[in-house]
Fold:
Amino acid sequence: MAEAANKIAVVTGAGTGVGRAASLALMNAGFTVVLAGRRMEMLEETKKLGDNVGKSLAVSADMTDPGSIAALFAKVMDTYGRLDVLFNNAGMGAPPVNFEDLSLEQWQAVVNTNLTGPFLCTQHAFRIMKDQNPRGGRIINNGSISAHAPRPNSAPYTSTKHAVTGLTKSTALDGRKYDIACGQIDIGNARTPLASRMADGVPQANGEVRPEPLMDVDHVGAAVLHMANLPLDTNVQFMTIMATKMPFIGRG
Structure:
């Protein structure tokens, strides 16, 4: 707790779901968290739920806007002067239409949010972390089960999450010389507003619609906190956390 109290973390998509759970876990452990997202009212709600000492900060930021991302990290430096943890969490999917009916605009919107946004955030984090004292930091990417296997009609989301794995590996390799560690958490069926539909039934690979088990999203927050708390000479390169009985391992 004492060490965490001196650490600054940025969480993107911090207003709801996994981002909120991770932010609360970090704040409750003593981290100062910069809560980034598009909806200020949701960020402020997250801050109110977890920050009991008034150190954390809500910042409106659009992960599809390079200028907005640059302003976010400038605010971090102006306010705190360093950055210890970045959780690249913000993401979106496209409508689940047939592959051949997906528009270029829908594809590009997902690529901009899920891949280009984390790339730009990681670049800014590199520039801060390599020059600060003490040097280094940790970057955690939200990959998803979709970084390993697709759901039906999910080409943009699945493609970007596979690409995030490449970004994670490149970041881990290129960050070594700066004492920057990078790992990825792949999440399956956490109970969030986005995933609650799983319990009602979602399309399976064989064309059937079936309900799927969910897990408490707080377990994801605890997993992110575990990764964030490690010393920089230790790294969780990849972690998969999922509802035990979801149809993923094997053939469903």
Remarks:
- The radius of gyration is 18 Å.
- The chain has a mean pLDDT of 94.
- The CA atoms of residues 94 and 105 lie 10 Å apart.
